[in-house]
């Protein structure tokens, strides 16, 4: 007992205990402004990476077109007319089968397309173009599986049974209806001609890139097709 009071002088009251002091330390962390700047930087980096990926994916197409359109050896000529810049297959064509089933424009991607355009009442000139379309594909030999035949019908009239039968065969023509005005905003004839007087070439990316002349020489159109197929052989393969 004496040991517990030895520090208190006799006759003095015990000293009051000192209050406990607490010190609060703030935790380290990014300030609001710094966090916003960091988010903005990450967004810019993400967009840059996305653009680089798109560029890498598109580079084979760009390279083949550059080779075909720009790097031309002496004496090299094209019979068909090249379309520069190319025109993308629009989504508003309102494509549908002859029975009326909707077809997406995207479903035509993945193959080279040799396209004819015109009304369902196919006259003698139309029948000649459709026959040439079939013959041109067969003339490509082992490369023919990289090209599809497509006929865009620009009205609502029915096809005759005879024409339907002629469009069949081992490799039938893909026949689709589309709005005439929408087709005319995409494809275009040469000056003074109608849109249904040509054959049109569309690449696997859905880009209209070449137009055959009116009443063309099949062998010369075939050489043009050989050129574009050869230029794209390292990135385009047969089949969708």
From TrEMBL:
The organism of origin for this protein: Rubrivivax rivuli
Protein name from the UniProt record: Uncharacterized protein
Gene3D superfamilies, A to Z: Glutaredoxin
Entry keyword set: Membrane, Transmembrane, Transmembrane helix
Transmembrane segments: 51-71
Lineage per the UniProt record: Bacteria, Pseudomonadati, Pseudomonadota, Betaproteobacteria, Burkholderiales
